[in-house]
Design a protein that fits this description.
globular, alpha/beta, 10 helices
Length: 317
């Protein structure tokens, strides 16, 4: 039977249900927890997060994939409590959002060290939580080109994915040529990689989404809801219709099997105020209705939010 690691244990992939594929319970930059301006009590974080996850579950959401990564506020014991409280499966990750978010200890680490770190968190557990990571996160640092550390993280992630069978998600899909070369060098099938954020308002025109799909990679349209129509849109915002049309064009080119979608939620931001008006449940309240209005049938929506994520997240031993 196909299995997936969640924070409360391994479950059959068939039990994942509708999946929010690229999300954050709480994301922040290293050190933000030391700035008293941004301190939150556990009660405050719960009050921000639990209603969102409960509403997600009420709408029919089954699984939340947290890709916060090492050094950016990952808190697996907290995730376990949230999962038990709300009934939502939560998948935690190992890896890094990008090399520029890694603390100096990891910045100096070798590929071999990073590989051992990732494999340990997938097969033994994250810290002393007893919970195993279900995905590996990698990313391109600011500037749009992979740094030496990024390349070491990508190579270590490829080796850990081959060793353990869990998939890889990327933060941004720019500089995909370098990423794909590393994955190919390591012998990792590209269907085990989800190249994320191809739809964001900064990099969409630089991202070769169709080319990535043609190489065999999976493609993530996972910043839905970050719209220029928001009261105070972030710099990566994009007009709602423009992003939706981009997604529909990609699907129309015959890449449904490789497409996944999400909203890059940040349920309780750490060290910054977050984006007002953006929420996890944009998935149900706006995105899925928009897709239906655009003519997608229920089988296609199930494919995008249930079948494709389950296939991707299944541990491939």
């Amino acid at each position: 039977m196909s299995r997936v690691n969640t924070v409360l244990g391994s479950i059959p992939a068939e039990e994942l249900g509708i999946v929010a594929i690229h999300e954050h319970i709480g994301y922040g930059m290293p050190g933000s927890e030391l700035d008293t301006k941004w301190w939150k009590t556990p009660e405050e974080r719960y009050s921000e997060t639990v209603p969102k996850l409960r509403k997600f579950h009420e709408y029919g959401g089954g699984t939340f994939v947290d890709v916060t990564g090492i050094c950016n506020g990952r808190d697996v014991d907290y995730y376990k409590s949230l999962s038990a409280k709300t009934g939502v499966h939560i998948i935690a990750c190992t890896g890094f959002v990008g090399g520029d978010t890694a603390l100096p200890f990891f910045e100096r680490a070798s590929v071999e060290y990073l590989t051992r770190q990732f494999v340990h968190e997938i097969t033994v557990g994250i810290g002393n939580t007893g919970s195993k990571a279900g995905v590996i996160k990698v990313g391109v640092s600011r500037g749009g080109r992979m740094t030496d550390l990024d390349k070491r993280i990508y190579r270590a992630a490829a080796r850990a994915a081959l060793s353990t069978g869990v998939p890889i998600l990327t933060h941004l899909a720019i500089d995909a040529e370098n990423a794909i070369k590393i994955f190919n060098d390591e012998g990792l099938p590209l269907d085990r990689v989800l190249f994320g954020h191809v739809d964001d308002g900064v990099n969409a025109d630089k991202t070769r989404d169709t080319w990535i799909a043609e190489q065999g990679g999976r493609v993530g349209f996972d910043t839905f809801g970050y719209e220029t129509e928001l009261p105070d849109p972030p710099f990566w915002a994009r007009p709602r219709k423009e992003r939706l049309d981009h997604f529909l064009r990609f699907l129309g080119k015959g890449h449904l099997d490789q497409a996944l979608a999400g909203v890059d939620a940040n349920c309780s931001p750490l060290g910054w105020p977050g984006v007002k008006g953006h929420t996890l449940n944009y998935l149900f309240e706006d995105l899925i209705p928009d897709l239906r209005e655009a003519g997608l049938d229920e089988a296609t929506i199930t494919k995008l939010f249930v079948e494709n994520p389950a296939d991707f997240l299944t541990i491939q031993n």
